[in-house]
Write a structure and sequence with these properties.
The complex is a heterodimer. Chain A is 68% helix and 6% strand. Chain A contains 14 helices and four strands. A four-stranded mixed sheet of chain A has the order 2-1-3-4, with helices on both faces. In chain A, α1 packs across α9, α2 packs antiparallel against α7 and α10 packs parallel to α14. The longest helix of chain A is centred in the middle third of the chain and has 32 residues. The radius of gyration of chain A is 29 Å and the shape is elongated. The two termini of chain A are 24 Å apart. By secondary structure, chain B is of the alpha/beta class. Chain B has ten helices and 15 strands. Chain B starts with 5 loop residues before the first strand and ends with a helix. Classes of the chains: A alpha/beta, B alpha/beta. Chains A and B meet through α1 and α8 of A and α2 and α3 of B.
C-alpha cells in the first residue's frame, strides 16, 4: 500500500514540476469547450440567399420579403440571371437561390398559379440541407396561404377566414430547441474522454521509453500498486477538469444541471476511472509513445466522437458500429450526462440502460490494465 | 533454502529471440561475496544474461538460481533481495537525489525506522551532500551514476547486478565507483558486473568472457593472463610499419601488432627475443628500447576469441 502512495507522490511531482504541461492539462479542456461549444451549437439561422427577381412587381417584392424578414434567411445578393445565381452557389457565397420568373406578378393578379424556383446547395451536411429545405418550403407555404386568404377575402367581400386545423406541439425538456442544451452535455464527456485517455496512455509508456520502467520491474512492486499509483493523480486532474467544464457550461452557455448534481459527479468519476484504465491498458500494449497515441486516437477517440451519439443518433447504426459503441464507456456516460443535465432524470431510471454498463466497463478496463501488465521485458 | 553457498548458479542458461540465440548454455557460479565480471563486446549477451538473472526475462532453456531462488519460478523473491543498476541510470530527472532515494526506499519497503538513517548514510557514501536539493537532471554523469548506485542499494541487497554501470563516465568517477563496489564486496555483498572496459575487469575476483552469446573463458584475471601462450615484448622504435614488414616472415613469431608508436611482438618463447631485435636492426629500423610485458586482458580476450573461432571452425568442418 505504501508503495502505491509513493508512486502517486512521484507522479504528482512529475505533473507539478512541469508548469507548462500542468497549464496545458488544466486549461486546454476548458478552452476546447468554449471553442467547440460556440462552434458546434451554432443555429443554422441567417442562411445566405440570393434572389433573381425577373418579375419586378409589388407581388414579387412582397414574396421576397417573406424570406428577408424571417430570421432564417438573409438576402445577400440580388442577381440578374439564373447563371449568376448558380455561380454564387458554386463559389459557396450563398446556400440558397430564389428565382422569380417574369410572369410571376401577372399570373398572381389574374388568379392563376404562379411558380418560383429554389436552388439549394446539396453538397453541405445532409441534415443542414434538410433543415434548409424544410425552412424554404415552410415559408413558401405560409406566403402562399397568405396570398390565398387575401384572394378569398377579396372574393368573399369582408368575410373573415381562418384555416380549419391548427396544430399545437409541446416540446418537453428543451422547448426552445436550443442546440447548446443538446451539445454541451455531449461535449463534456468527449473532452473528458480525450483528456483522461491521453494522460494515462502516455503514463506507462513514457517510463518504458526513459528506462525507469526496467528499474521498477526489478523491484518487488505489485502491478496494481503501480497502476493505481499512476492513475490517481490523473484522476484528480480529470475531476478538476470536470468541474471546470460544468461551471463553464453554466456560466458561458447557460446549461444548468437539471437533475442531481452530485449524482452526475459520482457517475463522472466512474467514467473517468474507466477511461484512465483504458489509457493504461493502451499504455501497456504500446511499445512507444507514438504507438500509444495512435491506438488512443484511432481505437477510442475518433469512434468516441462519431459513434457515441454526440452528433448522430445511434438508433440507425449498423450492428457492428452499434456493438463497438456499446464497448466505449463514453457512449453510456454521454447518455447519462444528457439525461441528468437536460432531462433531470434520476439515476434509478438509468440504472440498467446506462449506469450498469458504465460501471462494468470501467471496472473491466481497469482490471485488464492490471492483468495485462507484466513485470518482464 | 537461501542459505546456499553460491549467490548465483546457472545451468545451461539460454535465451533465444526468434531464431537468434542471444545466450547459449551458460554455466557459472558466483560464490557469496565475490565480484564477478562479465566481459565482452556489445551484443555478446551480457545484458540478456543479467535480465534473466534479475527475473525480468524468462530463459528459453536451462535454469538459474539467484540467492537460492529459481529465476523462472520465483522472480519476486529474487527482486526483493537484489539491487540492479543499468547503464541508463534510470533515475527521475525531475526529482532531487533525496526524493529519488526516498522513492526507492519506499518501493523496496525499507522499514520507516531505518529509512532516514539509511538515506543520509547513502548521501554521505556517494558524496552527494552538497547536491541533495538539486534536480537530478541537472547533475553530471558521474554524480548521477553514484546516485543510481545509491538507489540500487538502498535496501542493502545481498546481491547486486551492475549492467555497464560505468558506461560514459569519466575515469576518475569510474575509479571511485569501483572503490565503493570493493567496499560493498568486503561487507559480504555478491556482485555481478558487466563491462566492455577491459581495465575494469581487473577489479573482479573472477571474469567470464562472453562472445556471441557464449562463455569462452572463466577465470581470475591473473590466471587468464597466463592463458596467452608465448612471450610478449613491447618494442619502442621508429618506423613501426617497416618493422612489422621486417618481422613478417621471421619464424618463432606468433603475432605482431602496432599500438601507437609501439610494437607488441608475441614470441614463441623468451629465447627468440634477441634474434628478433637483430632482425629489426638489420632491416634498418631504429630500436629505442624493448621490454617484456604482461599481456593485457584485451590481448587475452582477442586471443580467446580467435581460439574460439578456430575451434568452432574445426567443429563445423567435421
Amino acid at each position: 500500500m505504501e508503495r502505491m502512495w509513493t508512486i502517486m507522490r512521484k507522479e504528482a511531482y512529475h505533473i507539478w514540476r512541469d508548469p507548462r504541461t500542468l497549464g496545458l492539462i488544466l486549461l486546454l479542456p476548458a478552452l476546447l469547450l468554449i471553442l467547440l461549444g460556440y462552434g458546434i451549437s451554432g443555429e443554422s439561422s441567417n442562411i445566405p440567399i440570393t434572389v433573381v427577381d425577373l418579375s419586378k412587381t409589388a407581388a414579387s417584392r412582397q414574396y421576397i420579403e417573406n424570406y428577408s424578414v424571417s430570421q432564417d434567411f438573409e438576402v445577400m445578393y440580388y442577381a440578374s440571371s439564373e447563371a449568376e445565381l448558380l455561380s454564387l452557389i458554386d463559389t459557396g457565397k450563398v446556400q440558397v437561390g430564389l428565382l422569380i420568373p417574369e410572369d410571376f406578378g401577372r399570373k398572381l393578379n389574374s388568379g392563376e398559379t404562379a411558380s418560383v424556383q429554389f436552388y439549394v446547395n446539396g453538397s453541405a451536411d445532409p441534415t443542414n440541407v434538410q433543415t434548409i429545405q424544410l425552412k424554404v418550403s415552410a415559408i413558401g407555404e405560409m406566403a402562399s396561404e397568405e396570398i390565398l386568404v387575401n384572394r378569398l377575402m377579396r372574393m368573399g367581400g369582408g368575410l373573415s377566414l381562418t384555416l380549419p386545423v391548427e396544430t399545437f406541439v409541446k416540446t418537453l425538456y428543451n422547448p426552445n430547441g436550443d442546440r447548446k442544451l443538446f451539445m454541451i452535455p455531449g461535449l463534456i464527456p468527449i473532452i473528458l474522454q480525450v483528456q483522461a485517455l491521453l494522460l494515462s496512455a502516455l503514463a506507462i509508456v513514457k517510463e518504458r521509453e526513459q528506462g525507469t520502467m526496467e528499474q521498477l520491474i526489478v523491484t518487488s512492486i505489485k502491478p496494481w500498486e503501480l497502476m493505481l499509483g499512476k492513475i490517481i493523480p490523473y484522476l484528480v486532474v480529470s475531476i478538476f477538469n470536470l468541474f471546470a467544464l460544468l461551471i463553464l457550461g453554466q456560466v458561458l452557455f447557460g446549461v444548468t444541471v437539471a437533475g442531481n448534481y452530485w449524482e452526475l459527479v459520482g457517475l463522472s468519476v466512474v467514467f473517468i476511472v474507466g477511461s484512465l484504465g483504458m489509457g493504461v491498458l493502451i499504455s501497456n500494449l504500446a511499445q512507444s509513445q507514438m504507438q500509444a497515441i495512435y491506438l488512443a486516437v484511432f481505437i477510442v477517440l475518433i469512434p468516441a466522437i462519431i459513434l457515441s451519439g454526440l452528433l448522430y443518433p445511434r438508433d440507425n447504426m449498423p450492428w457492428l458500429s452499434l456493438a463497438y459503441s456499446e464497448l466505449l464507456p463514453v457512449t453510456h456516460y454521454l447518455t447519462i450526462t444528457r439525461a441528468i443535465i437536460v432531462r433531470g432524470v434520476g439515476s434509478s431510471l438509468l440504472w440498467w440502460s446506462s449506469i450498469f454498463p458504465l460501471v462494468v466497463l470501467s471496472i473491466a478496463y481497469f482490471a485488464a490494465s492490471v492483468l495485462v501488465f507484466r513485470k518482464r521485458m | 533454502m537461501n542459505e546456499t553457498v553460491n549467490a548465483v548458479e546457472t545451468n545451461d542458461l539460454s535465451r533465444r529471440f526468434g531464431g537468434f540465440v542471444a545466450v547459449r548454455q551458460l554455466n557459472f557460479t558466483i560464490p557469496r561475496g565475490e565480484i564477478f565480471g562479465l566481459l565482452g563486446p556489445n551484443g555478446a549477451g551480457k545484458t540478456t544474461t543479467i535480465r534473466m538473472l534479475c527475473g525480468i526475462l524468462l530463459p528459453t532453456d536451462g535454469q538459474a538460481r539467484v540467492l537460492g531462488y529459481d529465476v523462472a519460478r520465483q522472480p519476486e523473491e529474487i527482486k526483493k533481495r537484489i539491487g540492479y543498476m543499468s547503464q541508463k541510470f534510470a533515475l527521475y530527472g525531475d526529482l532531487t537525489p533525496i526524493e529519488n532515494l526516498e522513492f526507492y526506499a519506499a518501493i523496496y519497503s525499507v522499514p520507516h525506522a531505518q529509512r532516514t538513517q539509511r538515506i543520509s548514510e547513502l548521501i554521505q557514501l556517494s558524496g552527494l551532500t552538497d547536491y541533495q536539493k538539486v534536480l537530478t537532471r541537472n547533475l553530471s554523469g558521474g554524480w548521477r551514476q553514484r546516485l543510481a548506485l545509491a538507489c540500487a542499494i538502498v535496501h542493502e541487497p545481498p546481491m547486486l547486478f551492475l549492467d555497464e554501470a560505468t558506461a560514459g563516465v569519466d575515469p576518475v568517477s569510474r575509479r571511485e565507483f569501483w572503490d565503493l563496489i570493493y567496499q560493498m564486496a568486503g561487507q559480504g555483498t555478491s556482485i555481478l558486473a558487466t563491462t566492455h572496459y577491459m581495465d575494469e575487469a581487473e577489479y573482479c575476483n573472477r571474469i567470464g568472457m562472453m562472445y556471441a552469446g557464449e562463455l569462452i573463458a572463466l577465470e581470475s584475471p591473473d590466471v587468464l593472463r597466463t592463458r596467452v601462450p608465448g612471450y610478449l615484448v613491447q618494442v619502442d622504435c621508429e618506423q613501426p610499419t617497416e618493422a612489422v614488414q621486417a618481422l613478417s616472415d621471421l619464424p618463432g613469431i606468433i603475432e605482431t601488432t602496432i599500438h601507437g608508436a609501439q610494437l607488441h611482438v608475441l614470441l614463441n618463447d623468451a629465447g627468440e627475443a634477441s634474434h628478433m631485435l637483430d632482425t629489426l636492426r638489420e632491416a634498418g629500423v631504429v630500436v629505442r628500447s624493448s621490454l617484456p610485458i604482461q599481456p593485457s586482458l584485451e590481448d587475452v580476450f582477442l586471443y580467446m576469441v580467435e581460439q574460439h573461432q578456430a575451434s568452432a571452425k574445426s567443429d563445423s568442418g567435421e
